[in-house]
Each structure stands twice: as C-alpha cells, then as structure tokens.
Design a protein that fits this description.
Blueprint (H helix, E strand, L loop, with lengths): L1 E4 L27 H8 L6 E4 L6 H10 L4 E6 L2 H12 L8 E5 L5 H7 L5 E7 L4 H5 L25 H7 L2 H12 L4 H14 L5 H11 L14 H11 L2 H11 L4 E11 L2 H16 L3 E3 L9 H6 L7 E7 L1
Parallel strand pairs: 2-3, 2-5, 3-4, 5-6
Antiparallel strand pairs: 1-4, 6-8, 7-8
The structure holds S-adenosylmethionine.
S-adenosylmethionine binds next to helix 2 and strand 3.
Length: 323
C-alpha cells in the first residue's frame, strides 16, 4: 500500500453547497450512481472510502456530497487509473471534501484507514471489476478485440501475468480455472488446445489466445454466438491474475469491521460468482447481527441507464448497514 498524495486543493472559504460537478470526460461512466448514493447516504462531514477509484466517477459524486468537513479516502490497485483520477479530482469545485489517494488493494483496507489516521468510517464503496479503459488500452493486455501483448495485471507489481499462466500452468489446472471461474463448459478442450499450441511457441498475444479458444469450441451449426467464445476464458484468466475472488472475500470480511454503527457498505458486482459472494457475506453478517441488509434483492440499472450505458447491463448493487 502506497499513500500517493494528500488532500486535493480546496477553497474552504467558498465551501458551502455541494453542487453538481462539471466533470471532464473519464471514458468510464459510473454505474448505478444514483442508487449507490441513495444507499451509501453520504452526508456533509462524513468519512467514506471508495475502494475502487477507477476513473473517479463515483468518487467525484461522493466528495461533492461529503463537503469540506468530510473526508474521502480513495484507493485503486492500478497506478494508471489512480493517476488519472487524481488529476480529475484535483479539479473538484469548492464545496467538495478533501480526498486522500492510496495505491492499494482493497484487501489492504485496514492499512489504508490506519495510514489515514481514521477509525471506523461512515461508508465504504466497492465497484468491482475493471473500467472501460482497462479493457481496451493496449498496456493492460486484456482485450481480444484487437491484438495486444497478453498481460491482464491491474497492478503492475503482480508477479504473474496471464501470459505466464497460459504458458506455464498444467493442463488440468488451466481447465479447472476456466470451469470454476467462468463456467466454461469446453474448459478441457480449450486447455488442451493451449498446451498443444505453446509447444510450438509461447502464447504472448491476446489475438493468438482468442483464436486458440475459438478453434477449441465446437461451432453452433451456423447459429450466431451471443458473445465471443473467448470471453469466458479471458474473464477467468483476469480473475486469476488479479486474485479477484480472494480480494473480494477479504474485503467482505474486513469492511464491516471498519464501519461505524449506522455506516453503510455498497458493493457493485458484474458477475454471478461475485454477486453470490456478496449476497452470502451479507446474509451471514445479518445472521450474526453485524449488518442489516438494505437490498433484499440486488438493484440493477434502470432502462435509461441501460440505454445510455449498455456496459452497465450486468451490474448488481447490494448494500448493508452496520448495526
Ligand atoms: C469498475 S472500476 C471502478 C470505476 C469507478 N467507480 C468510477 O466511477 O470510475 C474498478 C476499479 O477497481 C480497481 N480494482 C479492481 N480490483 C481492485 C482491488 N482488489 N483493489 C483495489 N482496486 C481494485 C480497478 O483497477 C479499477 O480501476
């Protein structure tokens, strides 16, 4: 965990009414923003943590509502998004809360709050997964929409890339993660194809990997595919590389301990496996009396958001309050 910078500049003299922010283009629209704000209930003077700063969309809206007497701690495991959002949030208007930036994994939440000198906080947000730029920027090596070096690490300090996995893992282990993390029914065929291909030469690009996956999957007799057949393999590899489920489990265990009574936790997930973990963690915390679940069913984007931002279609928001 690396504290990056301290408070953004603010004109505290002029800081009374939070107002809508004239935000620069971020290349990533925050999903379920209104619903997230409603459930986190950021009020002037409160302290909140955005565990997945991304391009800073949710953070900007939170900072505007927390006001100059509040504090927003923001973190991201990706230094590139952290830098982008830091510049974006430096332009927050007077009336927004100070923002403190941390290059950290959200599994390190206790280190972040300790480094900021904060006790329990009033709200914690996690908007899981990746931002649009991370999917398409060549430097991340995640997309098969265009050829790029295969990588998938959000945090460049992560020791193992997707290329390491496809070139070094045993066939059975590869098949197992494809099946377990992305429910890929052709996991064994895909793993075999990868292992055969890497005997010729290492698999180092996203397009070569995608081609191998497609060639391992039987054709649907001309019926159109709903999604590219490589999608599930790429998702599973990204989840392994970035330890996404392990980190989420840590966060779900740690976050309630770092909330004040009445503090809120909101988690936005994009896959059924993640949503199931959130649902189960909230349910068991409710059974022990630690949390009260605020969303009996997860919230999904309304039609107008879906029309504006089709990428939001799989988003699910769950929220809970500390008892
Ligand atoms: C969906 S984006 C967040 C978008 C953000 N809410 C916004 O409005 O721009 C997810 C972000 O979380 C970061 N991230 C993913 N896993 C993380 C983890 N375990 N710890 C910290 N950041 C993580 C990613 O690097 C990415 O920037």
């Amino acid at each position: 965990m690396h504290p990056i910078s301290n408070n953004c500049k603010h004109d505290l003299e002029n800081a009374s009414n939070p107002r809508p922010l004239p935000l620069p283009e971020s290349g990533h629209e925050p999903v379920l923003l209104a619903e997230t704000l409603e459930h986190l209930n950021p009020q002037p003077g409160k302290i909140m943590v955005d565990c997945t700063l991304g391009r800073g969309g949710h953070a900007a809206a939170l900072a505007a509502r927390l006001g100059p007497g509040g504090l927003l701690l923001v973190l991201d495991a990706d230094p590139r998004n952290l830098d982008f959002a830091r510049q974006r949030l430096a332009a927050l208007p007077a009336g927004a809360s100070p923002v403190r930036f941390f290059l950290a994994n959200f599994a390190e939440l206790p280190d972040v709050t300790a480094a900021a000198g904060c006790g329990p906080v009033d709200g914690i947000l996690a908007d899981l997964g990746i931002s649009t730029n991370q999917l398409f920027d060549e430097g991340y090596g995640m997309s098969f929409a265009q050829p790029m070096p295969l990588d998938m690490r959000l945090d460049p300090r992560t020791p193992t890339s997707a290329a390491d996995i496809v070139n070094k893992w045993r066939e059975d282990d590869l098949a197992n993660v494809l099946y377990q993390l992305a429910q890929e029914r052709y996991s064994r065929r895909i793993a075999r194809k990868i292992v055969e291909a890497r005997r010729d030469s290492p698999i180092t690009t996203t397009d070569r990997l995608a081609g191998l996956v497609r060639s391992a999957i039987p054709s649907r007799g001309g019926a159109p595919e709903r999604i590219d057949p490589a999608t599930r393999t790429f998702l599973a590899l990204r989840m392994v590389v970035n330890r996404e489920l392990e980190n989420l489990q840590s966060l779900l265990r740690l976050a309630p301990q770092h909330l004040k009574r009445g503090g809120r936790l909101a988690v936005i997930s994009f896959q059924s496996t993640e949503d199931r973990l959130v649902k189960q963690a909230f349910r068991s915390a409710e059974q022990t009396g630690l949390l009260k679940v605020l969303t009996k069913k997860p919230l999904s984007p309304a039609d107008d958001e879906l029309a504006r931002n089709p990428r939001s279609r799989s988003a699910k928001l769950r929220a809970a309050e500390k008892n």
